[in-house]
Amino acid sequence: MTTEPALLLDGVEYAFEGRAMRFDLDVAAGEWLAVIGPSGAGKSTLIDLVAGFLRPGKGRILIAGADVTRRSPAERPLSVVFQEHNLFAHLDAFRNVALGIAPDLKLDAAGKAAVSKALDSVGLAGFENRRPAEMSGGERQRVALARAFLRERPLLLLDEPFAALGPALRREMMELLGTLRSRAGRSPLTVLMVTHHPEDARGRTNRTAFVEDGRIAALGNTEEILSAASGPVAQYLGL
Ligand SMILES: Nc1ncnc2c1ncn2[C@@H]1O[C@H](COP(=O)(O)OP(=O)(O)OP(=O)(O)O)[C@@H](O)[C@H]1O
Ligand SMILES: [Mg+2]
Questions:
Q1: Which range marks the domain in which residue 100 is found?
Q2: Residue 200 belongs to a domain
Q3: Residue 36: nearest ligand to its CA?
Q4: pLDDT, tens only, 21-54
Q5: Measuring from atom 7 of ligand 1, which residue has the nearest CA?
Q6: Which residues of the chain have pLDDT under 70?
Q7: Pocket of ligand 1 (CB under 6 A)
Q8: pLDDT for position 210
Q9: How far is the centre of ligand 2, averaged over its atoms, from the C-alpha of 195 (Å)?
Q10: More exposed terminus of the chain, fewer Cβ within 10 Å: N or C?
């Protein structure tokens, strides 16, 4: 049993155009953390720093105890799903998922079966030959989730993955995410999820981080954070 945090940001600073952001955060293994906050607060910057798309000016980023601060995005043990453009337009659903485990798309029988199983797990059995343009936004995000979970990286980053979907479908996708995350017989996958919808976090995520002005201004149990009667979170939520 490891007590190492799944993710640790230790004095991570990122500056541009005279504006500075600073993030300190630790996420426990198996935890589902929601990240909320106003537009422009730095939520995507936080995700991009962890993913390695941005390099911090100062500080360290550790994943399961390993310092990844200087590693490229591909060398980090994580998967990322964005709001859109997660898929390659010229590849069908099967190949888009297969890329998660075989960048050269060369798969043996077991690999092919794993890809089909991953599509099945997101409700897309039979969609193998569809290209992104032939699928709905929700279906495309299912493909992106199938690929992310097939990769079995220990950390999953989600930046407003369902923001472009309607309320009922968004709820359905959140349920699916919860199911995929729970992984029978193993501890749940550690997830960092940016959302603008507090109801995505409520009743599902363990903790919520409120990002404001380039820092984590509040962090704690989701229900407590979201029910604050006053202060910056209450103001943001319009309570
Ligand atoms: N590399 C960069 N160069 C200049 N400005 C940047 C850079 N990265 C981010 N910003 C600015 O930093 C601020 C935070 O951006 P970020 O995308 O992290 O916000 P966000 O919290 O994800 O907002 P939203 O909810 O709208 O997605 C914004 O004002 C953005 O314009
Ligand atoms: Mg953003």
A1: 89-152
A2: no
A3: 1
A4: 999 999 999 999 999 999 999 999 999 999 999 9
A5: 16
A6: 1-2
A7: 16-17, 37, 39-45
A8: 98
A9: 9
A10: N
Instruction: Quote the tokens at residue 239.
Output: 């309570």
How many Å lie between the centroid of ligand 2 and the Cα of residue 107? 35
Ligand of minimum distance to the alpha carbon of 55: 1
99 located within any domain: yes
Name every residue whose Cβ is closer than 8 Å to that of residue 226 and which is 6 or more positions away in sequence.
Answer: 198, 201, 202, 208, 233, 237
Q: Compute the Cα dihedral for 133, 122, 163, 50 and give only its sign.
A: negative
- In the prediction, which pLDDT does 1 show? 52
d(CA 161, CA 181): 15
Going by C-alpha positions, the residue among 46, 44, 38 that lies closest to residue 237 is 38
Residue 34 belongs to a domain: no
Max Cα–Cα distance, the chain, nearest Å? 57
The rounded Å distance from CA 138 to ligand 1 centre is 25
**116 domain-assigned:** yes
Number of domains in the chain: 1
Closest Cα to atom 3 of ligand 1: 16
Under 8 Å between Cβ of 146 and 124: yes
